[in-house]
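Posting here for the record, re: zinc ion.
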Amino acid sequence: MVTIEKFMVNPLGENSFVLSDETGQCIFIDPGFYYEEEHEEVKRYISDHQLKPVKIINTHCHFDHIMGVEFARKTYNIPFYAHPEDAFWIERAESQGEMFSIKMSAVQAADQFLNEGDVVKFGNTSMEVIHVPGHSPGHVVFYCKKQDFLMAGDVLFYGSIGRTDLPGGDYNTLISKIKQKLFKLPDNTKVYSGHGPETTLGFEKKSNPFLT
Ligand SMILES: [Zn+2]
Ligand SMILES: [Zn+2]
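Prediction output follows.
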């Protein structure tokens, strides 16, 4: 049984997740922890639940999703995984931050790559990697079939979709990949997004104004 803990963090209100299962192993998804109290909060959560972090996996590498990568990587001495086509976003993190008047330090390149069809494992849990470009070229989502949830990053939000006006974004690609790759998954799949509340694929299929 996977437990999903959401932390809404940093000046952009990004959702960072810690997923754990009955083995006590856990992973970070999109660690955007920025302020000192956000670091303290997640460290406390991990020690209170006696969890053992094993890796960091990112849906994509926009600066608000990687602000906490070095903190998590160094605190727990764990590898950082991302799709190769978002490597340029890691290199640009500091300058992207400046555009939003947010000071952040450099993030080192990914230790390992994530690609379409890979299976991410921790403890007894497996999630499939699905490449869904359009918001960013190297955007992936993580689908857990056994427990029917999707970690969707900035591809799909409650009633909305990710912006496509940043470098490497493409509106038509995003819409067609969501329809092709995500809408074939079960309707009751719970969706955890990079910003805002949870939703389900069935609800978005029926009512999302960008996708109906
Ligand atoms: Zn993004
Ligand atoms: Zn975001």
